[in-house]
Amino acid sequence: MREGYKSVLEFLEADLEIEGDQEHLYNQLAAGTKDAKVRESFQHLARAAKGHKAAIERIIRDIESDDHDVGFYCLMCGWDINFGKMPSVGNEERCPLCCQKFALVDVDNDYAIKSLPQ
Ligand SMILES: [Zn+2]
Predict the structure, then answer these.
(1) Are 51 and 76 found together in one domain?
(2) pTM for the full model?
(3) What domain range is 102 assigned to?
(4) What is the total count of domains within the chain?
(5) Which residue intervals of 1-118 are DSSP H helices?
């Protein structure tokens, strides 16, 4: 499900395209050089871009299959607040460190949090 992740998925999909372009470019540059050390460097960069692509694809797959925790940093102290997998908008969680209470909200198809009165 993509609900709540509009901007995150747009960013990840754009980054996926960039990594794919980089992998292609580095492979072309590796194939176009006669210098073994330069070719090895481009091949290393191509493998890195391929690895980044695989990691980004895994995150997108986890989000789309609801196998991804919805988490935020506490607006008061910066600690992690975890709403778990497949939360509902309106769910409430307390910061485990400072105990501030937050509600999960939706802002234009992006999850966000709103501080609640104590
Ligand atoms: Zn906190």
Answers:
(1) no
(2) 0.81
(3) 69-115
(4) 2
(5) 6-31, 36-64
Residue with tokens 């997998």: 85
Q: Tell me how far the alpha carbon of residue 103 lies from the centroid of ligand 1, in angstroms.
A: 13
Confidence check: pLDDT of 1 > 70: no
Q: For 49-79, write each residue's pLDDT tens digit.
A: 999 999 999 999 999 998 999 999 999 999 9
Q: How far is the CA of 77 from the centre of ligand 1 (A)?
A: 4
Give whole-number Cα distances, 20 to 1, 10, 27, 30, 38, in Å: 24, 15, 11, 15, 20
CA of 73 to the centre of ligand 1 (A): 8
Say if 33 falls within a structural domain: yes
Instruction: Specify whether 55 is located in the same domain as 80.
Output: no
